[in-house]
Specification:
By secondary structure, this protein is α/β, with parallel strands linked by helices. Helix content is 34%, strand content 23%. The protein folds into 3 domains: 126 residues, Rossmann fold (3-Layer(aba) Sandwich); 246 residues, tm_1862 like domain (pyruvate-formate lyase- activating enzyme, Alpha-Beta Horseshoe); 54 residues, Nucleic acid-binding proteins (OB fold (Dihydrolipoamide Acetyltransferase, E2P), Beta Barrel). The radius of gyration is 23 Å and the shape is globular. It binds 5'-deoxyadenosine (5AD) and iron/sulfur cluster (SF4).
Length: 448
């Protein structure tokens, strides 16, 4: 590659999960520290970071087509500098470097704190790959939080030791690590100073977080949430994603005791058949999952439930799929994510017998989503008449319209005198499948 001028503008394109959104923000902050500014809307950026996801589908192909789009018809001096980050970078970094001469940097999800050094090399015309996994060192090397949204993310835990047989995450994000308690309290306070009213604690297996609190006690996620709830100006706390095996009594109790902990739980089940769950290496049964939910609901009766599902796992029969539908009927999720099984290279399930035909998967996904959509609408309809706090996150489509989230993570829109970051009282008056319309009751209730 030829030496080039230092980029002046950047754009970070994040795909996939909320942790990628968090990582994307942190990369943007680092580039900001280098004096590089976000490219104005509609204008080409000098540096494009593709922050990729490898969890499903043809992730790598998507990266190559994005690279093609960025470089098509452009000379080397006009084309942007390209960095590929995220889980595809981790899994297929060398291959990307080999296939795409237009890529200057490949950086894994645990190494992006080294972007500035890589950038320095790239400007000199040297290509750089970094897929090391020094997760804790990464956080220590990142700049302070200065800018954020009313609803912000905070990564508290990374990596996963569960090795579900379909999942690539233990390979791309590495082993479970918990960030230190003190660092998290500090980052949460910085986020609040920068305008956050709500913080969602993130981790691939967030309920496995553990650490030593300020008094030298070993605490779990519930202990961390209890202490974060004492941060002035922070109004709401959420966490995601949890594994049923790591939900302890303390966390269940926290849902009944901590007002700031929102009444929402995302707890993936994946399937309703015990045979399939075993083949997935999930370590729970349908019954143990349902019992766990009962305990959460006993602690917090208005808890909204969310889950993840995979249809068409290798060997899944029609009867086994029906068991997933039966579980859905029983739980009545407020919302959920559902996917067709996608073989991930290097995972045990990818080479299992009994891969399910595409048309069978399509049909199962359609039936599952019909059931989940029905329950989501029913949950929203049951909320009509409630008055609740809404955190205003952005402007709506029409002038004077605002969009925010209810405590149960429903999207709510309303009209009236408000601004982004306000917590307002809204009466929910009309329900749709994906959002509710509300009427503003009182403004800036607790815009701390
Ligand atoms: N195929 C389909 N869905 C998957 N997920 C993870 N790996 C796969 C795969 N190989 C889904 C799971 C998980 C969510 C984040 O993505 O449901 O909970
Ligand atoms: Fe993947 Fe979640 Fe299973 Fe970990 S617990 S292996 S992240 S599906």
């Amino acid at each position: 590659m030829k030496p080039t001028t230092s980029p002046k503008t950047y754009r970070v394109k994040s795909f996939g999960c909320q942790m990628n959104v968090y990582d994307g923000e942190r990369m943007a902050e680092m580039l900001g520290e280098q004096g590089i500014v976000p490219a104005p809307e509609g204008e080409d950026a000098d540096l494009v970071v593709l922050n990729t996801c490898h969890i499903r589908e043809k992730a790598a192909e998507k990266v190559y087509s994005d690279i093609g789009r960025l470089t098509k018809g452009k000379t080397q001096t006009k084309a942007p500098m390209i960095a590929v980050a995220g889980c595809v970078a981790q899994a297929e970094g060398e291959e990307i470097m080999r296939r795409s001469p237009a890529v200057s940097m490949v950086v894994g999800p645990q190494a992006y704190h080294r972007l500035p050094e890589m950038l320095e090399k790239a400007v000199k015309g040297e290509r750089a790959t970094d897929t090391d996994m020094p997760a804790i060192a990464k956080f220590a090397a990142l700049p302070e939080r200065r800018r954020t949204n009313p609803a912000s993310f905070l990564t508290v835990q990374e990596g996963c030791d569960k090795f579900c047989t379909y999942c690539v995450v233990p390979y791309t994000r590495g082993a479970e690590i918990s960030r230190p308690y003190a660092d998290l309290v500090t980052e949460a306070k910085k986020l609040v100073d920068a305008g956050a009213k709500e913080i969602t604690l993130l981790g691939q297996n967030v309920s496995a977080w553990s650490g030593e609190d300020g008094k030298g006690h070993q605490v779990g996620l519930a202990g961390l949430i209890r202490d974060l709830a004492k941060v002035d100006g922070l109004a709401r706390i959420r966490y995601t994603t949890s594994h049923p095996a790591d939900m302890d009594d303390d966390l269940i109790a926290a849902h009944g005791e901590i007002d700031k902990l929102m009444p929402f739980l995302h707890l993936p089940v994946q399937a309703g058949s015990d045979r399939v769950l075993k083949a997935m290496n999930r370590s729970h049964t349908a019954e143990s999952y349902l019992k766990l939910l009962d305990r959460f609901r006993a602690a917090r009766p208005d808890l909204a439930l969310s889950g993840d599902f995979i249809v068409g796992f290798p060997g899944e029969t029609d009867v086994e799929f029906e068991e997933t539908l039966a579980l859905v009927d029983e739980v009545k999720y407020a919302q959920a994510f559902s996917f067709k099984y996608s073989p991930r290279p290097g995972t045990p399930a990818a080479t299992m017998d009994g891969q399910v035909a595409k048309d069978v998967m399509d049909e199962r996904l359609r039936r599952l989503q019909d059931a989940l959509n029905r329950d989501q609408l029913a949950f929203n309809e049951a909320s009509v008449g409630r008055t609740c706090e809404v955190l205003v996150e952005r402007k709506g489509k029409h002038p004077g319209q605002w969009l925010g989230k209810s405590p149960w993570l429903q999207s709510v829109w309303f009209e009236g005198d408000a601004q982004i970051g306000d917590l307002v009282e809204v009466e929910l008056v009309e329900a749709g499948p994906n959002s509710l319309a509300g009427t503003l009751r009182e403004t800036a209730l607790s815009a701390a």
